[in-house]
Design a protein that fits this description.
alpha+beta
Length: 146
């Protein structure tokens, strides 16, 4: 029992020290160049309210950006976007693969894509009507997500 308590204490202290590594900035200065370019290209009228830098144990970092209109974008260590959440506004269409845009336009007329999550194997999107869809990396529809 004492070993279990000691192990839990070590885990809590480790988690606390890892969380303490996160830094918050009020501008885009810590972002990698590709992330800055993406923001200027697709969100030119927005300003960065906050950048949270999540340091990884292996030396890299992930970046969580909040823009002045509430849009939240996550970038990996290389500055490639992983997740875009525009709240109730549409994600810029040029950031979405054409097959996904076409599928949504054909099957969900009038619905916009407000969130897109790019994983290693697939894309998950959320529509303005709350429906969540899953596509493979080529943009082929897989299923409605629960």
């Amino acid at each position: 029992m004492k070993k279990l308590i000691a192990l839990l204490a070590v885990l809590i202290l480790t988690a606390g020290s890892i969380a303490a590594r996160d830094k918050i900035y009020r501008d885009a200065s810590p972002l990698p160049a590709p992330a800055k370019t993406m923001l200027k290209t697709y969100f030119p009228k927005n300003t960065v309210n906050q950048v949270k830098v999540d340091k990884n144990l292996l030396g890299g970092a992930d970046y969580e950006v909040i823009l002045n209109d509430g849009t939240e974008i996550e970038f990996n260590k290389d500055g490639e976007w992983k997740d875009i959440d525009c709240g109730h506004r549409a994600v810029p269409s040029k950031l979405i693969l054409a097959p996904i845009r076409n599928y949504v336009a054909k099957n969900y007329k009038g619905a916009g894509i407000v969130k897109i999550d790019k994983d290693r194997n697939d894309y998950e999107i959320e529509l303005t009507n709350g429906i969540e869809l899953k596509f493979d990396r080529a943009g082929k529809f897989l299923r409605i997500d629960d």
